[in-house]
Fold this protein.
Amino acid sequence: MQLISEDKINDIRNSADIVSIVSDYIPLKMQGKNYFGVCPFHDDHSPSMSVSKERQLFKCFVCNKGGNVFTFVKEYENISYIEAVKKVADKVGIPLDFVPTTQKDSKFKLEYEIMDFTTKILQNNLNSKEGVKAKEYLEQRNITDEIIKDFKIGLTLNDSTYLYNVLTKKGYDINKLDELGLITKDGITGYDKFVNRIMIPICNLDGSVVGYTGRIFNNEDSAKYINTKETSIYKKGNILFNYHNAKNYIREAKCAILVEGNMDAIRMYSSGVRNVLALMGTAMTKEQVNILKKLRVPIILMLDNDNAGELATVNIGNELVKNNIDTKVVRLHGAKDPDEYIVKYGIEAFNDTIKHSLNYFDYKLNYLKENKNLNNTEELINYVKSVLKMLDGADNLTKEITLKKLSDEYNIDYEVLKQEITFEEVKEINQAVIPTIKIGKDKYQICVNKILYYMMSDAKYLKIFNTKLGFLKNPEERNLVREIEYYIEKYGKINLADFISYSENDNNIRDLVNNISGSIDFEDLEETTFMQYINAIKDILNKEEIKKLKEELKRETDINKQVEISNKILELKKGSVKNGRN
């Protein structure tokens, strides 16, 4: 975080209007003195996120996400805080003399170093005289030098010990090379895992090479593809091929296309369709679903045109819809995969299929009809039951439209269909009204959050706190008070938007600050209201102390000490009554 000084970060934040920056990502509409928009951090159907121009903060009243302009960009783009600072600086025209770099896990520093060095060797091979035939093969597939560079494509030579010799001479341990799937260990020596193959690096989400797909180009090997085995840094289920290249194009296109193979992704990317990701198979993991969910764009499934691809489309589509991801489907006809389709029919025809993608529910309706005789009563009943089961968990609008389609198409009473499924009660959120937190059993925590919120927003409330209360129960809260004191002592003032940036330096307070900023309404700072929170805390602490003293009184046998404890209880009760009047 200290790559940029706190003063510089504050200058950037003060130069950035949060309303303007957030408006680049989602539409905002002014309601009262704040702006409202549909929250991008949960499945929001009515504007529940408020952006305060005055405070330079945002907050969602449903999912409780909140923070300053850097927090919003960080969460929306799924990037680090320092990368978010750089993005905001670029938007407001403030030059920074550094480029944010991804921090690789130091535990695997050697592994990343080996893979990076290996990739450079393979790239050099492709550009050498030994790579002429492989280069010609790539050119025939319209894979240009630009694409080769973007994907760091390389070549292993027709020599089963070439890579082994280069890497071991460099000083890398044979066991580590075997572990990374680059060589196969054979006693005290070894031989290359990939021989005479075009090498397509597999990168993690940050763009670091973690494995390879080796593809034949001269038909001399029966195995068309060989993939790196899973290793300490390569977990197939944790990545999506081409993510690091595609993420910015996905935001521009406002959708992502998901295909099976990396060659499909490369073909599409080289043809100008750059918002493409590949599974490298037909299975999808929970981790990959979460990656797609964070993109917050519709996903177009374009899997292979075979039975396995169709089954995967259904299964993956179910998972995406279950996770509230807008899902569409393209089934390519006349070709087995996107790579072949573009070669046969051209990019214009391919783009046209994307424009005519089906909503997942429409696709699923067609899929459920396949191989069924819907004139047969029993098969029609089974089909309708399958559709109703499919609607479980869908939003009310999808349920309504689908039921009406079934009713009209098969002459089934709409009310009968409706009785078979549950419609969730929809509660509209009034854009102009900010909900308030009701104090109930969590009164202490709510009041503490309010007190800390006030102190992080204006220095005068720290003085009042120290005079009127000066103590909080939990160590993390006391630690935050100390940080607030330090900040005010250093800068002479405080506001929450800047303090959020400051808190990024300390993991111990960052989460608490973010939690408070997301849980508090944009209420006006009033001294009388602040004192109500202070008195409420005093009252709670007094009652807890009274309870503790009463337990002590029960155990005490000395009459003098009993009187002493009783007097303490009486004084505390007087304090509670006084706080109640205030």
The mean pLDDT is 86. The chain has four domains: 6-92, 106-234, 238-364, 443-581.
